[in-house]
Amino acid sequence: MPRPTEYDNLVERRAFEAVTSTPGAVARYLSNAADYKATADELRGSRPMQLFTLAYEGYFQVVQAVLEFYQVRTKEAGRNLAIQRVSTSLGVTPQEFAFITRAHERRNGTSCESPFPPVSKNEAATMLAVLTKYLPVAHALTGAS
């Protein structure tokens, strides 16, 4: 399948790097995302920070699967641009996009520089809902089973 122009533009700008897909990697990323989701489902309603983190990492596995499918990897741009580009490809709503962006900033900006701030049950549930909604979309997009 040809790579969308938006990804090619990011390769040209050296934000992404064109690569050859690793056999089985798309399916593995999506399997990892499903495992994160299953573990997060077990915590539903309790331990919001852990649930949020599991769901966020699961969503990032979805992002990695789509990048692998389009045969690109992050380069200078890093995780934030990858999340934004793939979220757009998956068709997230504007409200979900804003939430995902804040979740990324919260996860990266705090876990790398300071303790993770408290997470509400609602924030955790929202992150899990995003993963739950877009994991099957990524399966459909990539054709991975």
Write a short abstract of this structure.
By secondary structure, this protein is mainly alpha-helical. It contains six helices and two strands. 34% of the residues are buried.
Order of adjacent strands in the largest pleated sheet: 1-2
Structure annotation, total helices: 6
Backbone structural class: mainly alpha
Instruction: Tell me, briefly, the overall form.
Output: globular
Helix content: over 70%
How much of the polypeptide forms β-strand, as a percent range?
Answer: under 5%
State Rg: 15 Å
User: Which regions have little confidence, pLDDT < 50, spanning 5+ residues?
Assistant: none
Describe the structure.
The chain is globular and about 40 Å long. α2 (about 25-45) packs antiparallel against α6 and α4 (about 80-90) runs antiparallel to α5. It has helices at about 5-10, 25-45, 50-70, 80-90, 95-110, 120-140, and strands at about 15-20, 70-75. The chain is about 70% helix and about 5% strand. It is mainly α and about 140 residues long. The protein contains six helices and two strands.
Note the topology.
Blueprint: H1 5-12, E1 16-18, H2 25-43, H3 48-69, E2 72-74, H4 78-90, H5 94-111, H6 121-142
Antiparallel strand pairs: 1-2
